[in-house]
Design a protein that fits this description.
This protein has one domain. 65% of the residues lie in helices and 9% in strands. The protein is built from six helices and four strands, in the order βααββααααβ. A two-stranded antiparallel sheet has the order 1-4. Strands 2-3 form a two-stranded antiparallel ribbon. The two termini are 21 Å apart. The model has no long low-confidence stretch (mean pLDDT 94).
């Protein structure tokens, strides 16, 4: 029988080359869970159901609004900070929606009783078409913002600092060359 002695190292005891090897090995299996769940849940609270995403060459997110444009904008303006991209988007569309609604009300108010009968339905139809257009644009911009959030979260999860912290927290041990012990 052969008896071999191996020296075991903590992450911080490794040289830089061995640390990089340990990081690479950690990254290979680091995201084997649904790390995006928090972002999906937060999107759901503001009326956006994300149904898919990609992070490779063509970053994207797919999904659909589950609330009206107004409800979603109000949820974001209530829950998100002013520095969030989603807040900027919601603020802009909430303003457009308010302007559109005010314009419709003013146009209807200026109609005579006879004109109101003839033109009110046309004004309502035009208003609904504009709401649909705004909602489509809003949904597209919101999905783009969430695809960026997903990309940033993914990059953060795999950044050296985060990987190092996770390795330390889990107490992993290594051989001198950075292989798992």
């Amino acid at each position: 029988m052969r008896n071999v002695t191996i020296t075991i190292y903590q992450f911080d005891e490794l040289n830089e080359t061995a640390k990089e090897k340990a990081r690479d090995r950690y990254r290979a299996g680091a995201l084997d869970y649904e790390w995006w769940d928090g972002i999906f849940d937060e999107a759901q609270r503001i009326g956006l159901k994300i149904t898919g995403f990609g992070l490779d060459r063509r970053r994207y997110a797919t999904g659909e609004l589950t609330m009206s444009l107004n409800e979603s904008c109000q949820a974001i303006l209530t829950e998100h900070g002013e520095t969030c991209e989603s807040y900027t988007i919601a603020s802009s569309y909430a303003g457009e929606l308010a302007t559109l609604t005010a314009t419709l009300a003013k146009e209807k108010e200026e109609l005579t009783e006879e004109e109101y009968t003839d033109k009110a339905d046309d004004l309502d139809e035009t208003y609904q078409e504009e709401i649909e257009r705004l909602t489509g644009e809003y949904e597209k911009e919101l999905l783009e913002a969430y695809s960026l959030m997903l990309e940033h979260e993914h990059e953060w999860q795999l950044a050296d600092e985060q990987v190092d912290e996770s390795i330390r927290a889990n107490g992993y041990e290594f051989t001198e060359d950075g292989e798992w012990a």
